[in-house]
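Q: Sequence in, structure out?
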Amino acid sequence: MIHLASWNVNGIRAISKKGFVEWMMEERSDIICIQETKARREQLKNDITEIGDYHSYFSTPERKGYSGVAIYSMEEPLDVREGMGVERFDLEGRVLTAEYPEFFLMSVYFPNGKASKERLRYKMDFYDAFMEFANGHRKEKGVVVCGDVNTAHREIDLARPKENSKVSGFLPEERSWIDDFLGSGFIDTFRKFDASPERYSWWDLKTRARERNVGWRIDYFFASMELRSKLANAGIDDQVLGSDHCPIWLELEFGD
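A: Exactly. Output:
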């Protein structure tokens, strides 16, 4: 059994003061993917880069204090690569791919489109480039994609769908992309195991929405169809605090 976790920490240096290392050591996941680190590796102290028996890998966004993803792995990957090979996206340090014998794992922080029409266009362009990138890796082996997708897929995936129908994060074109991505050969692993409502992974801090569970499910583990038979379980750890997001997890069973 391989246990994977993913968490948008909203600043790895900030969350390191809120029990992040303790959570990691208690969680003991085989692989932990982090999004929105807001840091380059050279900005981090050893207490963040060297945690227990984990090998750690970080993206290098051009802009300091912005974006960034990471992977902590008990097993040393066969290979780790940054980006998608598209400069306008890779400058923001949003994709980190680790190769293992059984699958590729991608820790991804998808863009937010709320700031402007230009950023929404950037987000949609990123989506299209990423679909091609992820499916390209399927020619070699199965693919697991995890991270903050910044879009709730269906009405069940957010507390107030009608009020947010014209807000980036729940726009028809954003939701349609998830339809297309799943249609291209990927599985929303959480919904394979849990069809219940009111299961969210992000809550607005300013309105204290978490206390009322007025949230969005915008963090996902997607697995390519090649791994369908290996999916053992998936979930959301919404009791874990420290960020405006909570961790999500996936278990894969490859047998002996």
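Residues 2-252 form a domain with the Deoxyribonuclease I; Chain A fold (CATH 3.60.10.10).
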